[in-house]
From TrEMBL:
Gene3D superfamilies in UniProt: P-loop containing nucleotide triphosphate hydrolases (3.40.50.300)
Protein name: 50S ribosome-binding GTPase
Record-annotated membrane-spanning stretches: none
InterPro entries noted in UniProt: GTP-bd, P-loop_NTPase
A GO MF label: GTP binding
Top-level taxon in the UniProt lineage: Bacteria
Species assigned in the record: Alicyclobacillus macrosporangiidus
Domain G residues, every copy: 5-150
Amino acid sequence: MKRSLVIGKTNVGKTLFCIHFARYMGVRELRWLVEEADGRTDCRVMSVAEAEASLSDVHPHRTRCLQSVAVEFPAGKTVRQLLLTDTTGLTEGIHPEPALREAMAQTLQAMTDASVILHMVDAWAIGHALGGAAGPGRVWDALEAQLADFGVRHGGYVLLANKMDLPGAMDGYRFLCKRYSRQRVLPVSALHGTGFREVKQVVWRFA
Ligand SMILES: Nc1nc2c(ncn2[C@@H]2O[C@H](COP(=O)(O)OP(=O)(O)OP(=O)(O)O)[C@@H](O)[C@H]2O)c(=O)[nH]1
Ligand SMILES: [Mg+2]
């Protein structure tokens, strides 16, 4: 099954997006295929409400593995399945926790053979940084730029500007559109599900 990988820094909303996008695609019971960095796999079944409560929160590095749900796309008279994979958030520099470094390496490894890369960023944080003394460089740093460079070369790459429901996020979205004028930048709210129709259209083409 082809894989659509949701990558990005920690706390940008990757997990909430996967939960709500799966629900948008008609998944009522989430059957997560969990792939730990040490190679162990597991299957966890939960409702959307359980997933929201247990898998996504404000603390950084809540996710420390690959966790995937299968979503279905109609293709003529048949149905195609795509694995929507949530990942460990990436950080600049070398993280002091070895287990987290391994989990981040697992994310990077998964990028090489994903069919679609959904690079999620926090448009609200970028918008805020634009108004600050340090400018956008504080949040749009070398890591984000390197992920984008990889994605552009890789193909099947989309930038998701998340948290568009928050004030100031539009400034962050405009910054991304200007900087990546030749790339697809989709504004979304993982919380409210806005922009999901456009994401579906893009992802569908690679399913
Ligand atoms: N307002 C708003 N909050 C959001 C949105 N998406 C995510 N959040 C919040 O941002 C926080 C982080 O969300 P997660 O889904 O856990 O983020 P993540 O990228 O998976 O984070 P890690 O797994 O820790 O790297 C949570 O408090 C979410 O409720 C959004 O679109 N709008
Ligand atoms: Mg997460």
